[in-house]
Amino acid sequence: MEFAVKSGNPEKQRTACLVLGVYESRRLAPATEQFDAACNGALSNLLRRGDLEGKAGQSLLLFNIADALCERVLLIGCGKERELDERRFRQIASHAATALNETGATEAVVYLTDLAVKSRETDWKIRQIVEAVEAARYRFDALKSRKDTPRRLLRKIILSVPGRRELPGGEQAVREGMAIAAGVKLAKDLGNQPPNFCTPSYLAEQAQALAAEFPSLRVEVLEEADMERLGMGSLLAVSRGSAQPAKLIRLDYRQGLAGRKPLALIGKGVTFDSGGISLKPGEGMDEMKYDMCGAASVLGTLRACAELQLPLNLIGLIPAVENMPGGRATRPGDIVTSLSGQTIEILNTDAEGRLILCDAMTYAERDEPAAVIDIATLTGACIVALGRHPHGLFSNHPPLAHALQAAGQTAGDRVWELPLWEEYQEALDSNFADMANVGGNRDGGAITAACFLSRFAKKFHWAHLDIAGTAWKTGKAKGATGRPVPLLTQYLLDRVAESDRENGREDGRAAH
Ligand code: BES
Ligand code: MN
Ligand code: ZN
Asked: Which residue's C-alpha comes closest to atom 16 of ligand 1?
């Protein structure tokens, strides 16, 4: 989709479709009001007939409005004006995107940027609309013989800004929205890909393809022999039962100041989690193809950063394995030595995510990262604790946790922090090794898993995102969500803005 920003009066737009907001009980948004006045009350006359109350989720397509230059007007219900918060705005943007797709218009001028959302400026609204439009167009039908993608005529969306002064900011917001949307799409595509296609080798190839597309990204793939040599006994233990070789994918993005320590993003890349010898029950097991969504979010986020040319130093690390039961598979009771030197008694082969992440975390130490964020579909217990709305957040560094909370709020991709208290650590005591890979019971399972990881995060600031409940939707709308690409990209945008402030620059690009 092509996006542009423009300032100008709605009644002056010679366009195929004008998109205007109407609040509940038929109160017109400012641009709608202005258009209505210019058309001698044509809209309010129509609304009085009762076809649109203005409730959120409603829409009404109108043709042949007397005295108007546009071919159509798409009215979007916005709900009660004083209830219009960030979440509601996103819903409105999403409904508008769906309704707009169903019109025959090839182009539209959208005035929903004039809806007042508390403490959010035009740029924020533009970005939300761009992301919503791209999300509404998403389909994964590459493997269907008959595509269910409907005929789509819409080619271009013009977003209105209040005045000419807002044009540069609006254009930057479009660029950010499009980069995030492309990152989200990449993460969704990788997640939805079936596990017979999306293997560790496939993830490595996708990383290589990304690096070929963006010269600012360099990629390196460590093979099992390399990992053997390094001493990644924990990661390799997970892969033993699979016919697919494990890969450790490393991406480097160095567009910041040479002396600045990098931020490392580590994504769990279990391309299928059968549970291994501790086999999972059959029901819903297909969804364990999504167990690489952490990895997908790292690739999506790096794509967004590269597209935006953010002046940052980043490392992406993806331990990619398939967890299968096989003759050579790791058994419950096996003890392995991790790269850190700590020994682990594997009591449950289904707690495999932590086993691959811990070695990737120790591997990250050699780059002396300023911070490490791991992203993992780690525990079913996280879904029990938080449901499927926020990502679970754990951190050993409160400022990092706060920054992620703020970024999540801005991006509409929120986190909720859970405790990492010392009291929980003893659940991992083992009679035979330095630690067990699971706690003695199911209590606080998301926390126990985070406690396990924390033992490998002693040398850096670290945050862990448990995305088990948020990376994909189950049921009828089954599909990857592309989360937490918006959160992570926002976090990185915030870091860029932060160092711009430190350097005394209000806007413009300093080196970081
Ligand atoms: N990938 C799963 C976690 C998961 C389960 C995510 C369901 C989303 C939906 C992970 O590898 C796993 O199997 N975790 C176990 C840990 C347990 C054995 C301590 C779990 O959550 O049951
Ligand atoms: Mn598992
Ligand atoms: Zn798993």
From this structure: 351
Q: Is 507 a residue whose pLDDT tops 60?
A: no
Shortest-distance ligand to the CA of residue 438: 1
Q: Look up residue 471 and give its DSSP letter.
A: S
Ligand 3 centroid to 213 CA: how many Å? Answer: 30
| 307: its two tokens | 């597209």
Q: For residues 85 and 95, what is the distance between their CA atoms, to the nearest angstrom? A: 15
Of 338, 352, 336, give the one whose Cα is nearest residue 279: 352
Atom of ligand 1 nearest to the CA of 437: 19
Identify the residue with better confidence: 402 or 66: 402
Q: What percent of the chain has pLDDT over 90?
A: 95
CA distance 315 to 256: 12
Q: CA torsion 439→441→447→453, rounded to 10°?
A: 20
Asked if the model's pLDDT at residue 238 lies above 70, the reply is yes
* Catalytic site includes residue 280: yes
Ligand 1, residues at Cβ distance < 6 Å:
273, 291, 348, 350-353, 377-381, 438, 445, 468
Buried/exposed code over 330-342 (b: 16+ C-beta within 10 A; e: otherwise): beeebebbbbbeb
Please, what sign has the CA dihedral across residues 478, 484, 490, 492?
Answer: negative
Looking at this protein, which amino acid is placed at residue 403? A
User: What CA–CA distance (Å, rounded) separates 471 from 475?
Assistant: 14
C-alpha–C-alpha distance, residues 510 and 492, integer Å:
14
Mutate to test the pocket of ligand 1, among 290, 322, 350 (most ligand atoms within 8 A of CB): 350
Find the 380 Cα to ligand 1 centroid distance in Å: 5
Which listed residue (280, 331, 459, 473) is catalytic?
280
> Using an 8 Å Cβ cutoff, are 317 and 363 in contact?
yes
Q: Is 250 exposed, middle or buried (0-12, 13-18, 19+ CB in 10 A)?
A: buried
The tokens describing 455, both together, are 């033992």
The β-bridge relationship of strands 269-273 and 313-323 is: parallel
> 106 has which bridge partners?
none
C-alpha distances in angstroms, 491 versus 31, 360, 400, 473? Answer: 33, 22, 10, 24
Q: Which pLDDT score is estimated for 506?
A: 59
Tell me the pLDDT tens digit for each residue of 449-475. Answer: 999 999 999 999 999 999 999 999 999
